[in-house]
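PROTEIN DESIGN WORKSHEET
SECTION A - STRUCTURE
LENGTH: 206
TOKENS:
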């Protein structure tokens, strides 16, 4: 019995990719993930996530990572289809891993509806869609670590060129970077999500 966990990282960011990651593992082996300290990536330090990332990759039976770029995100947000976009990519991850059952962290207020949508696209195995799945199911926690480390690496790559902070709208350094770029070039860099409300406000002001 192969079980899959799927989670995202970077959904609320104003820049960089939205990362969807999935891991698949035999049900009988799942306890090992708890034994090595796997839990929701938000509860772990960056160093702990890096260490566990390597252990998870080497242990699981399969994993798959999808990166959704800002342009694709913007297109879906403008059509009020961001949840659908995430369901589509979670389904893609599940289709690649072909498990018997999958646990996904629902971004929809209605997790049952979200699970149904993924199931309709993936057409493989049973889908269990839950809120806070990354803290309730260790296989989803493992996926959350893979997604978070992958996303952090993408931001670190950008940070080597630009002083842009964490990428989240609550970060004053990030918003100052976006503001300064708009003032200088009258547009946003291609790695910024222009459909995000804080970015649209900066565009209007400048």
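SECTION B - SEQUENCE
RESIDUE ASSIGNMENT:
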């Amino acid at each position: 019995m192969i079980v899959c966990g799927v989670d995202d990282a970077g959904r609320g960011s104003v820049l960089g990719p939205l990362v969807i990651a999935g891991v698949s593992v035999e049900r009988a082996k799942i306890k090992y993930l708890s034994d090595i300290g796997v839990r929701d990536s938000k509860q772990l330090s960056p160093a702990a996530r890096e260490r566990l990332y390597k252990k998870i990759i080497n242990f699981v039976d399969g994993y798959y990572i999808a990166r959704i770029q800002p342009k694709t995100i913007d297109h879906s947000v403008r059509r009020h289809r961001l949840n659908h976009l995430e369901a589509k990519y979670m389904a893609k991850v599940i289709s690649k891993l072909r498990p018997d059952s999958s646990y996904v962290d629902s971004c929809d207020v209605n997790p049952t509806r979200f699970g149904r949508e993924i199931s309709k696209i993936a057409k493989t195995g049973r889908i269990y869609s839950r809120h806070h799945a990354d803290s309730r199911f260790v296989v989803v926690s493992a996926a959350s670590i893979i997604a978070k480390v992958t996303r952090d690496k993408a931001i670190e790559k950008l940070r080597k060129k630009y002083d842009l902070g964490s990428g989240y709208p609550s970060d004053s350094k990030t918003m100052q970077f976006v503001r300064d770029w708009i003032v200088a070039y009258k547009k946003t860099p291609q790695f910024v999500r222009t459909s995000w409300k804080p970015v649209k406000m900066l565009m209007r002001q400048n």
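SECTION C - NOTES
The chain has a mean pLDDT of 96.
The chain has nine helices and five strands.
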